[in-house]
Design goal:
Layout lengths: L1 H14 L1 H44 L6 H5 L3 E4 L13 H4 L2 E4 L17 H6 L3 H17 L4 H6 L1 H7 L4 H31 L8 H32 L3 H30 L5 H12 L5 H16 L11 H37 L6 H12 L3 H29 L5 H4 L9 H6 L10 H6 L2 H23 L5
Antiparallel strand pairs: 1-2
Helix pairs in contact: 1-9, 2-6, 2-9, 6-10, 6-11, 10-11, 10-15, 10-20, 11-14, 12-14, 13-14, 14-16, 15-20
């Protein structure tokens, strides 16, 4: 019986000119946004790989110089692009894609792609995620809002029920009939998109991308089923199609358009972060309490002369200036770690509150899950930034240790404690290039457990409410 009802709904849906127009628009929008996203990710990944290679060559070919001075040349390190950013770019356009490493400083990501776009350009960008999160649910609502109300208004609902057609089977058949045309339309498009994305991006294994894609598809499918259940339940509760449409459009607007940005603003207001100037000022205040480098060098020199029981710095196994640089870097890193940890903790609090506000709108947990599986959320950015900082500390420590071991220290009064040692390409090559492996899909899932749970609770709630609505189904 369900299949018979579904077959009838499929025929009516396919014959409906509105469906054909809607399907055409959706396919064009998804195709255009996917091609645009794929092209952007592929081109950007290629450019950043070239720049990373150029940075490495610049580092290796800068000539002989003091190791610590060489460290001040620094390097730009880029966050690898993941293929699914073509579907959901998440916060990537607004968070920065590269970090400059240098001694004494831990820098924030810079060069936000969105900064290169005007306000109109940013507002006009449409991603695959936007289409899936807003337009597809809208079309589901327009297809199902009259599931029972139209039958009631036409007088056929009483007839169908009098024939012994259970309301649950009628609802299931109509939902299946509406879903089948979209499945036939979107599944091939999804497979083509997956094939297209397989070759884009600059990191992550193909199996990881495939698993992320499958889980993302499951999340969106769950959301679409949820919207279907809500639409059918509303159509069963109310008596008029116009009322059902108004209720569902109101739900779509509040849940999809108003709630997510409002939740972000609430989270940001509840857990505010300092602006860039305030953040740097707080760090500088702590750093000003550290001894000046020249003062530190003379203190280290005095300590080492006493520790080794010698009268001249030339008799020491390590150069005091190099040791002082190591200690200075350790103290600076400790300060930066304190402030960056506090900043990360605040952002994590915002994310947790945003996830919990998913009880207000099912789109909120879907957005979190989608960004997480795309590798375009805050936890992925933080993981990259922490990997960069680990590399930066190793980078600077290697150069300072070489300075401390091999430097030539002249008399402190004559040279004012300055190390005149220079190194060359052999030392530069001993520092490996930066290699970042993004977290696997399991890591991404674990950091979105709350959002996944909230989305499933919404699905369970809708599945619970629908039978109750069907029991109250009226024929008049």
């Amino acid at each position: 019986m369900i299949l018979r009802i579904a077959r009838r709904e499929v025929l009516e849906t396919v014959r409906d000119r509105r469906f054909r127009w809607s399907a055409g628009v959706i396919v064009v929008l998804i195709g255009a946004s996917l091609l645009s996203g794929w092209d952007y990710v592929a081109r950007t990944a290629g450019y950043e790989d070239l720049v990373q290679l150029a940075e490495r060559n610049r580092w290796l070919n800068k000539g002989d110089m003091n190791p610590h001075s060489a460290a001040h040349y620094g390097q730009y390190l880029f966050k690898p692009r993941l293929a699914l950013e073509a579907v959901d770019p998440g916060i990537v356009p607004y968070s920065g894609t590269s970090i400059f490493i240098e001694p004494h400083h831990q820098n924030l990501p810079r060069y936000k792609p969105a900064a290169d776009l005007g306000t109109v350009s940013r507002a006009g960008q449409l991603t695959v995620a936007d289409t899936l999160q807003l337009l597809i649910p809208l079309l589901i609502i327009l297809s199902l809002y009259s599931t029972f109300t139209a039958e009631r208004e036409q007088g056929t609902l009483r007839f169908l029920l009098s024939l012994g057609v259970p309301p649950r089977r009628l609802a299931a058949g109509k939902a299946l009939g509406v879903a089948i045309p979209w499945i036939v339309l979107l599944v091939p498009a999804s497979l083509a998109g997956a094939f297209l994305l397989a070759g884009s991006g600059s990191s992550a294994s193909s199996s990881d991308v495939a698993t992320r894609s499958a889980l993302m598809a499951a999340a969106y499918l769950s959301y679409f089923v949820l919207i279907m259940l809500i639409a059918i339940a509303v159509s069963a509760f109310v008596t008029r199609s116009r009322t059902a449409l108004a209720v569902l459009l109101g739900f779509w607007f509040v849940s999809g358009v108003l709630a997510p940005p409002l939740a972000m603003n609430v989270a940001a207001a509840r857990h505010p972060v300092p602006n860039g100037f305030e953040f740097r000022a707080a760090i500088d205040t702590d750093r000003e309490r550290l001894p000046a480098l020249v003062t530190r060098i003379f203190e280290v020199e005095k300590r080492m002369l006493e520790e080794y029981g010698v009268a001249s710095t030339t008799e020491l196994p390590l150069v005091p200036s190099g040791v002082a640089l190591l200690e200075d870097e350790t103290d600076n890193s400790r300060i930066y770690e304190k402030h960056f940890s506090a900043l990360h903790a605040t952002y994590e609090q915002q994310n947790r509150l945003f996830s919990l506000m998913g009880f207000v709108s099912p789109l909120i947990p879907l957005q979190s899950v989608s960004m997480g599986l795309a590798g375009a959320d805050y936890p992925h950015l933080r993981d990259f930034a922490e990997a960069v900082e680990t590399y930066r500390r190793d980078f600077v420590r290697t150069l300072n240790e070489d300075d401390a071991r091999n430097g030539r220290m002249y008399d402190a009064e004559q040279a004012q404690g300055l190390n005149l040692y220079t190194a060359g390409r052999d030392l530069w090559e001993s520092i490996p290039p930066f290699k970042y492996n993004p977290p696997d899909v399991g890591w991404a899932v674990r950091r979105n457990v709350t959002s996944i749970g909230v989305l499933l609770l919404w699905l369970l709630l809708a599945a619970t409410v629908l039978p109750f609505a069907l029991k109250r189904l009226r024929t008049d």
